[in-house]
Amino acid sequence: MSSFKKSILPNGVRVVTENMTHSKSVAIGVWVLTGTRDEDNDEVGLSHFAEHLVFKGTKTRNAYQIANSLESLGGDLNAYTTREYTCYHCTVLNEDWKIGLEVLSDLVCNMKLLKKDFELEKKVILQEIAMSDDTPEEIIYDYLFEIAYAKHPLSRQILGKSETIQKMTQKRVIDFYKKYYQGSNLIVSASGPVDHDALVIECQKLFRTRKPYKIVNARRAPIWKAGRQIYEKDLEQTHILLALPAPSFQDKFRFEAFIVNSLLGGGMTSRLYQAVREKQGLAYSVFSTLNTQTDSGNIAIYAGTDAKNVKKVVHIIADELLKIKKNGLKESDLKIFKTQVRGQLLMGSDDVENRMSSVGVNEMIFHEYRSVDKVIEEINKINLKSVNQYIKNNFDLEKVAAILMGPNMKTHQDWISNYNFSKKRKAY
Q1: Can you give the pTM of this predicted structure?
Q2: Fold adopted by 4-206
Q3: Does residue 250 contact residue 422 with C-beta atoms inside 8 Å?
C-alpha cells in the first residue's frame, strides 16, 4: 500500500504527501512554479527579489515574528529560488506541523510589503549580487549558463543584474506576487508522519484566498552552445568549469546520465578525483554534477588549481572524457556505480526534507509520485547496452563548453577556444 496521497483543492492548489511513520519531524514545502526563466528581460531577478520580500512581513507578522515563529520551536524555516521555481519550506516536530503549514501559507498568501522594507531589501540584494562576484565557486556556474544557454531565459542569473534590481519597483513585485502565487501554480508537499486528510483540511482553510486560474509559463527548450570564455580575476587559484549537454528530467536516458556522472566525478572513487587529485595532486577539489531542468540538462566538471597547472588539468579531464567516449563503461563499472547510486537513494530516503523535496519535484515535473523503490527499480533496469548507447549518441565531446577564471588567463583564450576535446593530445 502506497504511503503517497494527492488531492487538488477547488482553486487548483495541489497537496501531495508521503507518510513516514518512523520520523519525529515533518517537512513541508510550498512550491511556486515560476522561476528566473519565466521573467521578462527587464525584470531579471524578480522571482528571487519576491522570495526575499515575503520574509519582511505579512498581514499578521513582522520580519522578527516570521523568523521566531518556528525557530522558537526548534524548527527551521527557509526558502530558495531556482531558474524554474521558488520553494518555501520548513521542518518542525510532528506536533507542530499545523504551525509550520500556517506560517508557510502566511508567507505565500499574505505578504505585506512596506516601502521602507522594499528599499532596504533592494540594498541587501545588490550587496548579495556584489558578493557573488567574490565567490568564484558559485559565479562560475552563472557564467556557464550565460554562454551555454546564450540568449535563452535559462542563461539569466537567479539573483538578477544590478541594473534590473535598481530599476525594480515595489508595485512590480506586488503585481508579480499577486499573479504567480495562485491556484495551480502552487504545490504543497509534506513528508513525515503526517495525516494527508488532516493536511488537506488545513490547506483548504489556509489557501482559500488563492485564485483558481491557471498560470501558463511560455517556456521553450534551449539550444546548447559550446562557448569557451576566460574571465580574468585576481584570485588565489584558477577555477575551471567544463560542461556538455545532458538529458532533461523527462529524458529516457536521465538515469544513464546519472550513472555516467557518478563514474566521471561523483565521489572520491570517480575517475576525475583519482586522475586529477590522487595521482597528480593538481587540485584539492574536482568533481562533476548533473544539472537537470524540465527540458534540458548538463554535466558540469569543476576543478580548482594553480594558474600554472590549468592546461595540464584540462588535458587530464579531456583524456578521461575521451576514454569514456571511446571505450564506454564496463560491466564492473556499471555494477559499482549502480550500487553506489542505490545506496545514496536509500540513505536519503530516511530524511524527511529529501522526501518532501522529491515528492514536490516529481509532482511538478511528472504530475505523479515516484517512490524510492520505483526509482531504484528503474535504475536496476539500466544495462550496459543502454548506458553505452547513451554515451555513443549523447555524450558529445564536440559540444564541450568551457570557463576559465582566475589570474593570468588572457593568454589562454585562443588555446581554450580551439581545444579539441574529441581528439587525444600529448600531455602538457
Answers
A1: 0.94
A2: Cytochrome Bc1 Complex; Chain A, domain 1 (3.30.830)
A3: no
